[in-house]
């Protein structure tokens, strides 16, 4: 690589996960509830992957890096993106992939350094700033995260991803008014932004504005899911009876909604135990 001038912890939720963006969608850019384990395909190689005869080595390594990142094999992704940069040190997307892989692998310091290296090209600046913001959020460095999202918005005033992530960062600091304003900007840019509607509904619910919360959830998910989300809010606010009746409402709408059924059973065990 060229030498360039370097220009509280994660919260866990029981029933409902509030995504960053995110990204790579947030956080994305994105924190979501863990999914079930999936069968991981074999790592593609130049001989088995669909690579053209004239494909440059850097492109091949980046392709493999992206595949490994997507399947959660961050250590291998890091090595592939590194090789892509060695082969083509101007590959901005490889820097972005490398930084994200470092971040998901828990190496936040290297992630931030890599994002700064990528920013030196002056390309994809919004993506690098958002990625840096997510990295700071994961470390609980919320003011630094907000500063990065503000840079992303300066780079692209229509960045709904940056506004959504900034709203989440404010939420983690219990700055609900600022969070609502940020989510509102994301929705103003894109009224169909389901993540922003979902997150906004969560904040309304935390403030006891249940009707407003439900309205926002309905703009993010189907009706049964919306009631499941509202049930979670009631539970988080210590209103167990309302939570139980709301989970039942979700199951009346969709008897096959497994998460609502599981939530109801867990809550019943808690209240009856």
How do the helices and strands line up, and which of them pair or pack?
Elements: H1 57-70, H2 74-87, H3 92-104, H4 108-119, H5 125-138, H6 142-155, H7 160-172, H8 176-189, H9 194-206, H10 210-218, H11 223-236, H12 240-253, H13 258-272
Helix pairs in contact: 1-2, 1-3, 2-3, 3-4, 3-5, 4-5, 5-6, 5-7, 6-7, 7-8, 7-9, 8-9, 9-10, 10-11, 11-12, 11-13, 12-13
Summarize the structure.
It contains 13 helices and no strands. The protein is an all-alpha fold. Mean pLDDT is 83; it is low at 1-54.
What labels would you give this structure?
about 270 residues; mainly alpha; 13 helices; elongated; disordered N terminus
Describe this structure in words.
There is one protein chain. By secondary structure, this protein is mostly helical. 63% of the residues lie in helices and 0% in strands. Mean pLDDT is 83; it is low at 1-54.
Helix count from the secondary structure assignment:
13
Structural Rg = 21 Å
The whole-number mean of residue pLDDT values reads 83
How far apart the termini lie comes to 60 Å
Q: What string, H for helix and E for strand, traces the elements in order?
A: HHHHHHHHHHHHH
Strand proportion? under 5%
Low-confidence region ranges? 1-54
Please give the number of β-strands: 0
Which structural class is indicated by helix and strand composition? mainly alpha
The geometry reads as elongated
Q: Tell me about the biggest sheet?
A: none
